[in-house]
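BUG-331 | component: ligand-complex export | severity: low

The export step for magnesium ion jobs runs without errors, but we want the raw record kept on the ticket for reference. Input record follows.
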Amino acid sequence: MTAVQKSVPKPVPRPLPMPVGEPGLPRAVRIWEVGPRDGLQNEATVVPTPVKAAFVSRLLDAGLPVVEATSFVHPRWVPQLADAEALMTDLLAELQEEAVGLPVLVPNEKGLDRALALGLRHVAVFGSATETFARRNLNRGLAEQWAMFAPVVGRARDAGVAVRGYLSMCFGDPWEGPVPVDQVVSAGLRLLELGVDELSLGDTIGVGTPGHVSALVRAFQRAGVGPERLALHFHDTYGQALANVLAGLRAGVTTFDASAGGLGGCPYAASATGNLATEDLVWMLTGLGIEHGVDLDRLVATSAWMAGHLGRPSPSAVVRALAGTGEGGDG
Ligand code: HMG
Ligand code: MG
């Protein structure tokens, strides 16, 4: 071997961001994975139950600490998740205790009954900050949605079941336009008063921008709700999701919802596109030196595998960069 050949550097296996922190950011964050629920609820293709179960298992194996598995909603409203019982039964058989703690959406007591009948211990109610979306998504006005949730949260808490509260349309609403910060704070307080453990603020149609995120988190703080009780749930319709996460981190929020491969949307808000891709979030957190516990290679392989099942490439920039075409394969 010649001296020239010896000096040729070995290629790195794949690029990685160089961790460079920023003072004042949290040391660690919790990623709340919503791909199997928010992602698959909006797919034209109905994914077979065993594929969904493998998706959830693979996401857990990739180190995601929370994987929201499905919804116990009316099957006519969300046919893509009509197999909620079958999916959770499979997951309980495979994962046992680990499956018991997987969060599932329940809009009402009927949904809660279905989750409790399987022995599940973590549920989420999902309300709206706006009247129009409450009617479109839950067939209820604002006042009726709180009345519907009250017994759900009360009974879940009495049974020692953890309850998350989602609030949609926290930045803008396709029918009502921009949503005032004060309106969002009062709706969020209603959910917290019902007794939910944490509040996830949803930018359902992805119109939020960083200054708006900071203002909303600050407004909650002024109302007595610190960032440790909040999660941020961004859809990436206008490419603002990562910038919005950074604003959230700077405001002290440590829980972020994201969807593997950037799958997602909301069947009752036509302008809602994919969620923030978990891979893109992981890449940025790694670069900021913030702990997240996720194995990016395993996650990318999982999203590429799921893209193969859905028959379309992942919209995630990181999945595309790291998995070549993103057209799938066995991962
Ligand atoms: P409704 O038609 O008003 O229901 O729908 P109802 O209470 O009048 O009952 C009618 C029938 O539905 C009855 O049956 C009930 O038993 C049955 P019947 O007596 O006629 O035979 N029923 C149910 N069946 C199964 N499971 C249930 C259930 N509840 C009633 N849970 C309802 C009201 C809330 C059920 C309906 O509007 C619904 O299912 N909505 C779900 C919409 C949804 O899942 N949207 C997506 C999730 S939200 C989201 O994606 C946003 C988020 O990601 C955050 C963000 O991005 O902003 C979380
Ligand atoms: Mg959503």
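Assignee comment: Attached the raw record above. Residues 38, 202, 204, 233, 235, 266, 275 surround magnesium ion (ligand 2) (CB under 6 Å).
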